[in-house]
Every structure is written in C-alpha cells, then in structure tokens.
Amino acid sequence: MGRVRTKTVKRSAKVIIERYYPKLTLDFETNKRICDEIAIIASKRLRNKIAGYTTHLMKRIQRGPVRGISFKLQEEERERKDQYVPEVSALDVSQTESGQLDVDADTKDLLKSMGFDNLKVNVVAVSQQQQAERPPSFRSSLNPAPGITEKKNSYLAFGRPWRYPDNVCPGWLFPRLAWFSLVWRAIPG
Asked: Which partner from 18, 31, 45, 150 sits 20 to 30 angstroms from 78, CA to CA?
C-alpha cells in the first residue's frame, strides 16, 4: 500500500537534487548511499524515504523539467533549446529533391488562408502514427470479471461480488465500492 510523502521528504529530496545532481543516478541503492554521505538524516527509515523520492524525481527529470527543481544543468538545457536555430529552414525548397514541400491537405489549406499560395507544395497522405503497446494499467485490473452474478445474503446484497487481489488488500475487507452499492434487505419476520 502506498505511503504519504511528507513535506520534509519532498523538500529534502529537492534540495539534494539541486546541490548534488551530477552524483545522483536512477538507482535507489546508489542514491541511498549518496544521501548517507552528503546529509545527516535522523533515521534509516527517513533516509530511505528521501532516497526513494529522490530516485523518483530523477526519473521524472529524465523526461523533462520538474516544477520546483532548479539546477544549473536544467537551466542550461532550457536556454540551449530556446536559442536553437536550424541550419536549414524547413521552408527552403531548394534543399528538397523535388523542389516542393511535402504537406498534408490541412496544411495546404492553412497556407492558402494565410496568403502563402505562391509556395510550391506537394500534398501527401498522412500516415497514422502507431501507438506503442502498453501493458494494462493497474486500474484496469481492478474491474471485476464480466458475467459474475450478484452474491446475495439474507440481509445484505453486494452489487459487486469481487475482492481486491490479496497483494493489494486483504480479502476480508469489503469488495470495491461496497459502501455505495450496499442494499439493505428487509429482515423476514
């Protein structure tokens, strides 16, 4: 079961990343040892929480800038991207073999509406991008199997006779959304 990350853990992890970014890696064990060396942390449990959140943030930084973390390398990367100028313009038709730009029909209409009718364009069909196959998410595994009938008791009826997997939650707890789908039956008598 997930734990709440306190403000102390988050703040400490951000400070460690800002000051010691070049030393940190994407590996928890390495980051744990680095946190031990660079900081005096009161307990092993707190150290592990800080190292875990540091590792999580390092993985997020790999994907892009993270809000609230400002370090020199990230700022330099942002400046480099902002000041990038391509060597050859995308609109330079002299660089293409056919002497025309390859665009789709919508782009051609856009150019026409903007007054760039004089550009030589070649209309090509847009090929749909393939989406990568992703494993099913955790949420989809929580849905009950189709075709399960309602489980009825003499006093209670649960709308969903399904249990969480034992690795998520012990089976003795109520089924998912049981509080909302709980229907009280009249006691015979």
From this structure: 31
